[in-house]
Amino acid sequence: MALLKAARVADVPTLDVVAPGLVVETTADAAASIAAAAAAAAGQQQQQQRRFSVIGHRGKGMNALASADRRLQEVRENTVRSFNDAARFPVDYVEFDVQVTKDGCPIIFHDDFIYTEEDGKISRKLVTDLQLEDFVQYGPQNEQGKIGKPLLRKMKDGRMLNWNVQSEDALCTLQEAFEKVNPRLGFNVELKFDDNIEYQEEELTRILQAILKVIFEYAKDRPILFSSFQPDAAQLMRKLQSKYPVYFLTNGGTEIYTDVRRNSLEEAIKLCLGSGLQGIVSEARGIFRHPAAIPKIKEANLSLLTYGTLNNVPEAVYMQHLMGVNGVIVDLVPEITEAVSELIALPEPDPEVENLSNNQAAKGAATPNFSHREISFLLRLIPELVQ
Fold first, then answer.
1. Contact assessment for residue 137 and residue 148, using Cβ atoms and an 8 Å cutoff
2. What contacts 15, CB < 8 A, 6 or more positions away?
3. I need a labelling partner for 208 at 20 to 30 A (CA). Which of 20, 144, 284, 367 fits?
4. Which residues of 130-142 are buried (b: 16+ CB within 10 A; e: fewer)?
5. Residues 244, 208: contact at Cβ < 8 Å?
6. What is the pLDDT of residues 9-49, one digit of tens each?
7. Cα(91)–Cα(338) distance, rounded to whole angstroms?
């Protein structure tokens, strides 16, 4: 019987409300669909073991500055230190956000805007409008004795907070990550774009080629996978290269966008099949709200990863494994890798990311054998969290 380790359901931040106009299954229907998906996946597991992957979100975890949970302010996200801290645990990849500066240098930073305080006033700059030499002046500095511009971060509610963490490190470029991060660690490179900008193909091509130039020169044998919420960027990256897999990022129908390709798992499947993409990365709530999409994803021979606050709940991660999800992107790296230690293999990611897909054999991972009592508990828990 599998043990549910390190359970911290109460620690999970309040989930966003359902977007107006979205159709979601009722709690009872969702529970039934989840049970069906888990049963179908369990049948497949009896014939072959599947590898289950844990991926560190922005390294060892994102910085949630407004959270009372100090673990979410432990180390500065998207830095070499955060990546190497994550590498101390059995994660296969770290996920991070890549943008390209005005002078063509791929840098690692999540937010569209970067904030600081100058002469008592808040200054805001679009990250992609900065030259590299300007970008690296923000935050902690590698050069001893040098003081960078103080970093601020704008919250969703409009508050501006000092971006302070317990373990600091300098902002970095994509090249520095390749040069300084543990080489056994795979990179999930999110191609980051501003939702409020309409990009022409020429501009997208310029950005993606700048990223590929660094990757082809410095990746060597490191496993790489690309992902993006920007449908055109994901499709174009697939056209520009075929060496590394490209996944489409989606909220799974938990938010609505003007681009319909972003509004459901069904649209995500359609985009992947039409463009030759290899997988989908969905918000975990989208999977739990629409579990019937999982068999369709598997039938399309696509890999399925998830992200979101639910992935910091061990029970939710266990259930996703049962349902057929191939891997999870998490913030609480130590806790989740410990909780799912029976599911994950030794930290030796395969250069061929197809080892994440449903038709590949697992490498040393044990499949948990849940009792009826555990299944009953999980079926009650998950829909309540999702709703």
1. yes
2. 285, 309, 310, 385, 386
3. 284
4. bebebbbebbbbe
5. no
6. 334 433 333 334 444 444 556 555 665 656 555 555 444 45
7. 11
